[in-house]
Amino acid sequence: MFTMTCPTMQTERDLAQLVGIDWGTTHLRAYRIAAGGQVLERRESSAGILTIRNQDFVSALQPLIADWYAHTRPGPTLPMLLCGMVGSRQGWCEVPYRSCPSRISDLASALTAVDSPWGKALFVAGLSTEDKHRRYDVMRGEETQIFGCELSGQRAIIVTPGTHSKWCISKDSTIEHFRTYLTGEMFALLRSHSSIGWLMPDEDRTIQNEASFLDGVRESRREPNLLHSLFSVRSGALFDQRAAEAHSAYLSGLLIGSEVHDALRRYRASMVSVVATASLGRLYEAAILAAGGTAVRRIDAELAVCRGLWNLWETHLKQAKP
Amino acid sequence: MFTMTCPTMQTERDLAQLVGIDWGTTHLRAYRIAAGGQVLERRESSAGILTIRNQDFVSALQPLIADWYAHTRPGPTLPMLLCGMVGSRQGWCEVPYRSCPSRISDLASALTAVDSPWGKALFVAGLSTEDKHRRYDVMRGEETQIFGCELSGQRAIIVTPGTHSKWCISKDSTIEHFRTYLTGEMFALLRSHSSIGWLMPDEDRTIQNEASFLDGVRESRREPNLLHSLFSVRSGALFDQRAAEAHSAYLSGLLIGSEVHDALRRYRASMVSVVATASLGRLYEAAILAAGGTAVRRIDAELAVCRGLWNLWETHLKQAKP
Lengths: 322, 322
Known about the structure:
kinase (chains A, B), DGOK_N (chains A, B), 6-stranded mixed beta sheet, 2-dehydro-3-deoxygalactonokinase (chains A, B), 7-stranded mixed beta sheet, transferase (chains A, B), homodimer, 2-dehydro-3-deoxygalactonokinase activity (chains A, B)
């Protein structure tokens, strides 16, 4: 468990207005949040929902948040809002997907409450979208990040890169449509289990070689069929076209390039907001600019989720008033 | 070890003119071959080259072929010709790639000899091809299958589906160009290790649902970006759009469809020769016809490799004559 305690904790405890939980398949993060989405304290554990046995979500959460409730003054307890796969069929409480287009007020009015030792725990719904051929797409967790991105009235393109990257169109504070790419999962699969992963030294786990990364991004434009382009990792190794330490960066460029070229073309986007950690955000920024994007706005993924949880809570409160 | 003994073995032993070995990373197959490439006897083991320790290829081959040499009449021994990854850097003897375009006579004159307990063992070279952007592609083993396909003078498109499918252009008995797709490996990866593989029941290992397979082939045309289309396996499951037993067939359709659409478009092909086992050949035939191909010629992969080994040997003999 990682704890970041603010020096002025005693004072700030009283400022806390919300406990926000971002709970995915492989991570659990808890935030003590003040008005406006300001993060007072952040804690995390590796108890992703895949690790939870017998539906015992309470025991996994207990060590992270119990003391945040110990000093709560009498009266209404600190509200708790949860987003991510914890609201899926495999999670604590299944909240049905809401279909796009979806406004923040739609999600705020659809929070699902479950009793917990800390009062009502409120779950945010995921979103679904459907195309004209009846192909569905889904997200859980990213909708909260997106609603933390200060959506303006204008059409905006927002990407939340990761295991399953989501590219979203928003307009007038509404998520209109989105599109998932399996990019992060595919990288991990190929890295760990494939014949091209075998070529990569163990220490080559991070993407440090920007030239090879960009070489992959360019190749993904020339050669959009991934089943073919992936083989160039192997043939490039056979013909000594790049250093062994660079295969991983080139592979990452092929995959992120495939995603970025396709999304920029489909969404006819030039300005893109990237909601990510610093390292992944840097890669996406480089790929988007290399693929013809003209401007990238970088947004920290954790700050976005906290602001999104706050915005949802505030909207919910306003709806509750007569 | 699987042995298929012909009833008239005693007579036919004298007909044998060549021992052909197709030795890949995961399989080892040995054939006793008569004039014209006719297979007199076939044996196989699971001693693919990845299983060989200390370069001891002889011990792995011994149980399959030793008795074929026991009765060899005095004089020249039965020649032995080997193709596949056994001729790679990880194999018994590294034979450099020859670059395309390549005629059968080029390969027949480049056989590499290594001493063995059964006389000289001759290795067939692999092929490489290079595009104008200096991207290489390689094959080892498939070139022998292709030279077993009775290439006419006309331009022909031949596919050898599998872990790494190869699409080849041949003309005037020359392999002009080819293109690899990681299709079979990708299917196995996604089936065994990915979040979409988890959706598939264990018994769903073979592709039996042709309607779902063709649904995947059609979807791969509508949605050429694989990183996105693969997610429709998952969203289709969430929205109960297909039976659990059909996910695997749909995934196979997405992948084979991606390969086939791309190759037919690039090679502007309508008639395609498919060199495969019966079950894989049937899938490729269905996918090619659904993707706009007008005719498919099916060729058994093992017969092709034996005819190819024979054709290479016969060409080699002719070259040796003054």
